[in-house]
Each structure stands twice: as structure tokens, then as C-alpha cells.
Amino acid sequence: MTQVETGPSNFIRNIIDNDLETGKHQSIHTRFPPEPNGHLHIGHAKSICLNFGLAQDYSNALCNLRFDDTNPVKEDADYVAAIEEDVRWLGFEWAGDIHYSSDYFEQLYAYAVELIENDKAYVCELNAEQTREYRGTLTSSGKESPFRNRPIQESLDLFARMRAGEFSEGSMMLRAKIDMASPNMKMRDPVIYRIRFAHHHQTGDKWCIYPMYDFTHCISDAIEGITHSLCTLEFEDHRPLYDWVLANISIACKPRQIEFSRLNLQYTLTSKRKLNALIEENIVAGWDDPRMPTISGMRRRGYPAASIREFSKRIGVTKQENTVELASLEACVRENLEANAPRAMAVIDPVKVIISNYENDKTEQLIAPAHPKDESMGTRTLPFSRELLIDRADFREEANKKYKRLVLGKEVRLRNAYVIKAEDVIKDEAGNITEIHCSYDPETLGKNPSDGRKVKGVIHWVDATSNEAAEFRVYERLFLVENPAAAEDIHQVINPESLVVKQGFVELGLAEAVAEKAYQFEREGYFCADSKDSTPQHLVFNRTVALRDSWGG
Ligand code: ATP
Ligand code: MG
Fold first, then answer.
1. Is 90 exceeded by the pLDDT of residue 453?
2. Residue 105 exposure: Cα atoms within 13 Å on the Cβ side
3. Per-residue pLDDT tens digits for 289-298
4. Distance (Å, rounded) from C-alpha 219 to C-alpha 482?
5. Nearest Cα to Cα of residue 527 among 267, 337, 310, 289
6. Which of 169, 323, 413, 505 has a 20 to 30 A CA-CA distance from 456?
7. Are residues 321 and 360 in contact, defined by beta-carbon separation less than 8 angstroms?
8. Region 489-514: what's the mean pLDDT?
């Protein structure tokens, strides 16, 4: 396992410290329990960093990866593989084998039988509508099902026949016998098994009854010897049921459920269901579209795993509901890349520069550092010849002093190369500039802007022939509003410029760029080669993040 930065203290660590001090536990055991019904997102990353992070920080502690796969209809083996990859990429490794709730179907069934035998569960034949009616409301108590007091033997027989496939979906269910008058709706004889004639990605067609989440989760935790079962706040009112189930079956382990607030992030959806809808409606290209807040999307976009771990650490773990600024996630990415991303030059909107006083057939191999502050990253070679490309936005025929780039009649420094002066422009019939004719000063190579020449501006460039053509996918946030989850029509709040594709050039050598490893394209932003679409013949770079947070400012 990657050694990950120790997390800061929080209320969960305080509980654990106390449990270790009092001897309640000798060591702790957590789990991360995703439902394999989509790819994991930034919210899951918070839970992963919390659960696996605790296992790293406490001695002899373990964290399981358990697929919570009790709903065969929405789940898929492809998602299982994607989730494993995401957890590992984030830098974590689970204890022992992967677990599946479905591994415990036989045990869960036996515990359900035990509940029936102890008069703690019964087979109910109310239909869905009746069940709802009998449940009551938040302000009125429920009504007991007419099947509630049927003989134990009858429930045992019916439950066995449910399993054998004798009854149709929805005709029967197994319910815990708790309290129809409980102020907690979850305790009003909750359903614990239902009939579903569905193929399951792990158990195939073996089962036609499936246990419900609340029954499954606590027992799975107990079977695995979990000590602290961490989940998000919406499970707070499930906790009495969690405890009830474990108190009423013959299992020794009694894990403790602790809730923390989920991560909400500005301009971001954190619900697999809603993210799936974006895919279904072709708003994005898939789970790993670089605009998605999924772990696979962020990876493809070039976010380093360490920056996501750092973000999780900074947001902390509390019980307060809040929404985190997207800027703080991007700041973590930028800080990491500022220190670690090699520098390179890319011209995204090219215009040609001709150095009139540079020899026709000459090419120099200029040397530039891969990183201005980290010599260990070595150097790179930049071919330089008579014809270059610069960005269109870096030249003006006229400009005031604030514009520190190339202006007709004035000088500018080419990054890692010479000072040039714009002498003339050539335009096409429509008036567009096609060439900028310049002169260069051979004495200025490699000197920095304080070499005595009053040249303030520095612009980037690539050689016009010794380069690589590249496609640039410039990503912006996907939504125009801070809380897209509240939008009535999601189409209305999609940022039409969340992806802008441009064609340009990168410096030679970037044909070998490793996918997902970002470069800083000087003055342009952080970009990485796309893991799906970039090939040496057709380079594609994703913009990971801009150099600065310029949104709305
Ligand atoms: P979704 O609504 O996206 O499907 P979920 O909670 O249903 O989310 P699960 O796969 O069941 O997804 O979640 C696995 C674990 O991740 C759970 O323990 C859950 O509490 C946690 N988790 C999910 N979303 C967040 C979030 N936004 N912040 C923190 N933890 C989260
Ligand atoms: Mg879920």
C-alpha cells in the first residue's frame, strides 16, 4: 500500500482512540462498501480516504473492500472491476480478498430463519400499496399487518417456498417484527427480504429472494469483524435498525455505525444515478469523461491521486452538512502539478513567425530545464529554426504598455530562446495575419529578463516544422450553477463551453507523453495526454486545470 499522509484528528478518530484506550478493541477494522451500480465519484473518494486512511494510520488496522451487491437489477460486474481499479489508483489496498455481500446470502438466509423462529420476523402478503398505507406517516403511527401474528411455522414454510421460487414478485415479503408505532419509520416492521427473479452478477440464478440493505449491511459488517462502520449522515435513522438486527440474531460481533457528513461539491453532481443520467442523455461521453467528477474521469483528466488524497484531508470529517468550493479541489491539483509537472510548450492557436535574419537551413538544438525549480527532472531539447509558431493572442499590431507580449516594432523574449522584434506583418485578403516577420538578437540566448535589456514580456513558441501536431481538449466546469442537483432541467444548466476542441502544436518529444501524466504547457495550463484517444499519430491533450482560478474573476 502507498504510504499515505496521516490524516488530521476528527471525531471518528477520537472515538477510535477511546475504544483502543478502554480496551474495547485491540485493533480496528473498517470497510468501504460501494454498490457496484456505477463508477465511484469524488464523494466516494472522501469515504475511501477515510476508511483506508484509518487502516493505514492505526497499528494492525485493516480495511475491507466489500461490494454491497444486494440489488441485482442495477448492478454489473464491469463496475466491480472499475471500482477495484479506482481504489488502487487512489493509492489503497484492501485487506485480504475482496468481499461481496452476496458471499453471505446463505448466512443471511439462516439469520432470517432465526428471526422467524424467535418470532422476530414474519412473511407478509400485503401488496405494495397496502404496505405503504399500513406504514402510517411521520405524524401518525402505522397499522399492524394482518399477517403479523401468523404462526411461526407458517412463516417458516412460506419463507422456504419464497426461496424455492413458488411465489411471484411482490406477492410476499419477509418483514422484521419490531414496532408499527415507532416514531422512526425505519423501525415499522421493515422489509428484510423480497422476491426478485433476477440474474445476479455473482450468484447467477441461484437466488430469487434478495435481502434488503438494512438487513444485509449490519450482518455483513459483523461477519467480517468490522469494528467501526462508517457511513454518511442519511443513514443516521437506520442505526436503530442496524443495532436491532444484530441484537436479535446469534452473532457475537457488534460493530458500531458512525455517520459523517457527505461531501457536496460546488458545480458538481455526487450521485451515481444522476451521473448515469448525464451519460444516458449523451451530455458526457461516459463514466470516464474528463468532465465527470468520477475517479476515472479525474484520472483521465490528469488529476494526480495524491491531490485527491490531499483534498480529502483538507475537507476533514465532521457531522456538519456543507458544500465545498470547487476551487479548493482545483487548488490541490494545481499545487501538486506546480511542483511535479514537467514544463513544455504548446501553441494552441498558432500563427507563423519568420525570423528574417536567421539562416535559412539552420536548426539549433536549444536546451531548456524540464522544471525551473527541480533540477532532478533534467532537461529537454528544443529545436529552433527560422520559422516558428506563436499563439495568435500573443501578437498585436498596436498595444498599450499593459500588453507585455509581441507588438509591431517592439521586442519580446521567446521562452527558453532569444529576444525577437516584430518588423512586419503579412495578411491574407480577409485581413487575417498569416505571418509575422521578426528579427532576432543572437546575443540574448538563455539570458533571463534581467539581462539589462528592457524586455518585459516572455511568450512561448514551438518550431514551425520540428514539432508535433496535437488536438487540445480544453475543459471547463460542466455546470453553470453551483448546485446543479437543484436544477429543474439539467440541460438548462450545462456549460456549453465545458469542452472546446482546438488544433495546434506541441514541442517535439511530446509524442511520448505518458497518458494521464500532466505537463505544464507554459502560460497555457496543465495538460495530459488522453488515455483513450491519444496516439503517436494523433496526439490528444486534455486540459487538467488552468494555471490560475479565473472563473468569474
Ligand atoms: P450514490 O448516491 O452516488 O450512489 P451511494 O452512497 O449510494 O452514493 P455507495 O456505493 O452505496 O453509493 O457508497 C459507498 C460508500 O461511499 C458509502 O459508505 C457511502 O456512504 C459513501 N459515499 C457515497 N457518497 C458519498 C459522499 N458524497 N461523501 C462521502 N461519502 C460518500
Ligand atoms: Mg447506494
1. no
2. 21
3. 999 999 999 9
4. 39
5. 337
6. 505
7. no
8. 97
Question: Which pLDDT value is given to residue 2?
Answer: 43
Pocket test for ligand 1, best of 44, 46, 64 (most atoms within 8 A of CB): 44
Quick one: 316 and 437 in the same domain? no
Give the closest residue (by CA) to ligand 1 atom 22.
44
* 358: CB partners within 8 A, 6+ apart: 385, 386, 440
Band of residue 221 on the pLDDT scale cut at 50, 70, 90: very high
Distance 350 CA to ligand 2 centre (A): 48
Calculate how far, in angstroms, residue 35's C-alpha sits from the geometric centre of ligand 2. Answer: 6
Ligand 2: centre distance to CA 290 (Å): 23
One domain, residues 110 and 240: yes
Whether residue 422 has its Cβ less than 6 Å from ligand 1: no
Please name the helix (run of DSSP H) or strand (run of DSSP E) that holds residue 80, with its range, or none.
helix 77-89
Say whether both 235 and 286 belong to one domain.
no
Say whether both 293 and 155 belong to one domain.
no
Relative to the CA of 232, which ligand 1 atom is closest?
A: 20
**Does ligand 1 have an atom closer than 6 angstroms to the CB of 232?**
yes
Question: Is 1 within a domain?
Answer: no
What pLDDT score does 449 carry?
52
Instruction: Answer whether residue 350 is part of any domain.
Output: yes
Q: Are residues 476 and 409 in the same domain?
A: no
192 pLDDT exceeds 80? yes
User: What is the b/e burial string over 355-386, where b = at least 16 CB atoms within 10 angstroms of the residue's CB?
Assistant: beebeeeeebebebebbeeeeeeeebebbbbb
Which residue's CA lies nearest to atom 2 of ligand 1? 271
Looking at the structure, tell me whether residues 257 and 278 fall in a common domain: no
Q: Which of 85, 483, 474 is nearest to 288 (CA)?
A: 85
Ligand 1 pocket residue status of 262, Cβ below 6 Å: yes
Residue whose CA lies nearest to ligand 1 atom number 26: 43
Give the mean model confidence (pLDDT) for residues 150-159: 98
Q: Quick check: 63 and 31 in contact, CB under 8 A?
A: yes
Residue numbers of the domain that contains 438: 346-460
Of the listed ligands, the closest to the CA of 40 is 1
Q: Reply yes or no on whether the pLDDT at 552 is more than 60.
A: no
Mutation to probe ligand 1, out of 35, 69, 232, 259 (largest number of atoms < 8 A from CB): 232
Q: Is the CB of 312 under 6 A from ligand 1?
A: no
Active-site residue numbers? Answer: 35, 262, 272
Do both 385 and 495 map to the same domain?
no
Q: Which one, of 257, 287, 295, lies nearest residue 84 by Cα?
A: 295
Give the residue from 436, 460, 484 where a domain finishes: 460
pLDDT band of 6, cuts 50, 70, 90: low
Q: Using the atom order of ligand 1, give the atom closest to the CA of residue 48.
A: 16
- Reply yes or no on whether the pLDDT at 325 is more than 50: yes
**What's residue 553's pLDDT?**
39
Q: Identify the CATH number of the domain in which residue 355 sits.
A: 2.40.240.10
Query: Quick one: which atom of ligand 1 is closest to the CA of 272?
Result: 3
CATH number, position 246: 3.40.50.620
| Tally of domains in the chain | 3
What digits encode the pLDDT tens for the residues 44-58? Answer: 999 999 999 999 999
> Residue 372 domain-assigned?
yes
In a domain, 553, yes or no: no
**Mean pLDDT (whole number) for 18-39:** 97
